[in-house]
Amino acid sequence: MSLTLEQLSQSLQLPFVGDPHRRVTKACPLESPQIDGLSFCEKSQQVKLVGDQLGILIAPQEPSGESWNALISPHPRVSFAQALGLLYPEPTRAGGVHPTAWVDATAQVHPNAWVGPLCSLGPGTLLADGCRLVAQVELGAHCSLGARTVVQPGVSLGDGCKVGDDCVLEPGVRLLQRTHVGDRVWLGARNVLDGCQLGSGIKTDNMVYIGPGSEIGDHALLIAQSCAGPNTRMGAYSLLAAQGVVVGNVELAPQVQVAGRGVVYESVLTSGTAVAGDPAVAYKLELRARALRAQALSLYQQALKK
Fold first, then answer.
1. CA–CA distance from 57 to each of 3, 20, 40, 53, 63 (Å)?
2. Which of 12-21, 76-85, 215-224 holds the top average pLDDT?
3. What does the pLDDT average to over 231-258?
4. Which of 14, 15, 128, 131 has the fewest Cβ atoms surrounding its Cβ within 10 A?
């Protein structure tokens, strides 16, 4: 795709210097500049005087010289990744409804959405632009799926479930009634979400359970076979490691980390705390307790030998 410096500036919401009509069609390394290429640098020392040999540069500050066409970004690498999405957009896929699918007369399916084989859509269900149901997906009444969300085979959504934009639901996921999922969420295979609320940017691994009334903050991470009981509140960027359990009515502050097989019975209200063990305690205390248990076992074995 071909974009001008002005178009990139508007799309990425970044200031620019140079010719607003300068056009790029591809990305290229800074070390191999091309006249129609887009590149980036994270430090001013990395900039080489390539001048007109490079189409557009994304830099942390305005480059010295008169021949630069540049976007000024505090995070050039992130802005470059966003620009790649504009230069290389995903191909548009045809929408439609497979002949073996069943769609209620009151359901609304966007022309660019796809309903695959053996899918069923209940009354009042809404599929947004680019949403794709691969096959054998069951949606209850008054569900809604956001733009570009992909739902894999064997997934079922109960009545009133809502899923945001750019989500992925892997095979076997079950969303029970009135579960709400934010944008850019990835749900692993065979997850069960029971009437809970998920923020945006969350990733769950396989076979995760989240109980009714629970609230999971933005960008949280739940690893395989972990469990958040009823009315659990997990803050943003929190972590529940493999087979970790948070019992009901417990709150975890933002960035709290629960180690694998840890069981949390009481709220952890200090942001950034790492806990481990059963019952879960601060990680340093758990390490000390393990060392003391190992020492006691060693002393006991020595006593038996005497």
1. 13, 13, 5, 11, 9
2. 215-224
3. 95
4. 15
Domains assigned to the chain: 3-87 (3.40.1390.10)
DSSP collapsed to 3 states, 116-172:
CCCCEECCCCEECCCCEECCCCEECCCCEECCCCEECCCCEECCCCEECCCCEECCC
CA separation (Å) from 171 to 159, 164, 186, 236?
19, 18, 12, 26
Which of 230, 218, 226 is closest to 244 using CA atoms?
226
Instruction: Provide mean pLDDT across the span 64-88.
Output: 85
CA–CA distance, 81 with 83 (Å, rounded to integer): 5
Q: Torsion angle of alpha carbons 277, 281, 286, 292, nearest 10°?
A: -100
- Predicted confidence at residue 65, as pLDDT, reads 60
Kindly report whether the global pTM for this prediction surpasses the value 0.90. no
Other beta carbons within 10 Å of 252: 27
Q: State how far the alpha carbon of 98 is from the alpha carbons of 77, 119, 132, 133, 246, in Å.
A: 41, 8, 12, 10, 42
Q: d(Cα 240, Cα 276) in Å, to the nearest integer?
A: 10
Residue 46's pLDDT is: 58
Pairwise CA distance, residues 116 & 133, whole Å: 6
- The number of angstroms, rounded, from the C-alpha of 196 to the middle of its chain's C-alpha atoms is 17
Average pLDDT for the chain: 90
Q: Residue 191: which of 183, 201, 200, 202 has the closest Cα?
A: 202
Q: Which residue has the tokens 């009714």?
A: 212
